[in-house]
Amino acid sequence: MKLGAAIVGSLMADMKAETKRIERGVGAGVKQAGDGLKGGLRKQVISAGLGSRLARTWRSRAYPNKGYDAAALVWSKAPQIIRTFDEGAVIRSKSGLWLAIPTPAAPKRGVGGKRINPGNFPEHRFGPLRFVYRRGRPSLLVVDSVRINKSGRVGRRAKGGAFTKTGRMKQGITTVVMFIMVPQVRLKKRLDVVLEAKRWERKLPGLIGRQMLPN
After folding, report:
1. Do residues 44 and 106 share a domain?
2. Mean pLDDT for the stretch of residues 165-184
3. Do residue 153 and residue 117 come from a single domain?
4. Pairwise CA distance, residues 40 & 35, whole Å
5. In the chain, how many domains are there?
6. Rounded to an integer, what is the distance from CA 149 to the centroid of its chain?
7. Across residues 160-175, what is the average pLDDT?
8. SS (H, E, C) 2-46
9. Which residues contact 67 (CB under 8 A, 6 or more apart)?
């Protein structure tokens, strides 16, 4: 009886140790998969040309829990932006009329330091915006009678108009397009979150198996 009890006790101890080993393997493998998914999604954002700042919004957290129910959560702190590039989207103006896209000639910031738009355009510097309708093509918002300096940048509006007393256009003065006006812009799908998640889902059994190998 003592021998039987010893054998049973040894088997129970071995089973308990094996259970712990499996639990640790599952937890470590799931955490590794979560970290891998986060890294893969960050690389995807950078490869799409969306910048490292947006890439760093991807975060991950592991939940070892008890038994074999370990889990990993991967999320973005900018979900709306990620969803836009993951699904593709149509962007329209809030007013429902035109969407104004700044050209490289437009200043980066408007009155008040906010991102440039027709509402905060510094007309005191460049003059009033003029709407140019083009049938079948994007319409424009332009400024007239502005100076172009030697580096090609747009300067202040010319005093006294664009023409000399003889009716000739003053040198270095022209009309510059500041905004391109379109009804809407369709953003192409540039990310594939589901594809990356499935890739790491397929890797998960192998990751768990490697974590359970003896050291």
Report:
1. no
2. 73
3. yes
4. 9
5. 2
6. 35
7. 58
8. HHHHHHHHHHHHHHHHHHHHHHHHHHHHHHHHHHHHHHHHHHHHH
9. 23
* Residue recorded with tokens 């040198």: 171
Q: What confidence tens digit (pLDDT) does each residue in 83-113 have? A: 989 988 777 766 667 888 899 888 889 888 8
Tell me the residue range of the domain where 105 lies.
90-187
In contact, 105 and 143? CB cutoff 8 Å: no
**What residue has token string 């397009």?**
177
Contacts of 214 (CB under 8 A, 6+ apart): none
Task: Spell 84-121 as b/e; 16+ CB within 10 A means b.
Answer: bbbeeeeeeeeeeebbbebeebbbeebeeeeebebeeb
3-state SS class at 164:
coil
Q: Which residue has the higher pLDDT, 155 or 54?
A: 54
Ramachandran angles phi, psi of 202, nearest 5°: -70, -30
Q: What is the pTM of this model?
A: 0.62
Instruction: State whether 112 and 182 are in the same domain.
Output: yes
Neighbours of 207 (CB within 10 A): 19
**Summary count for the chain: helices (H), strands (E):** 5, 9
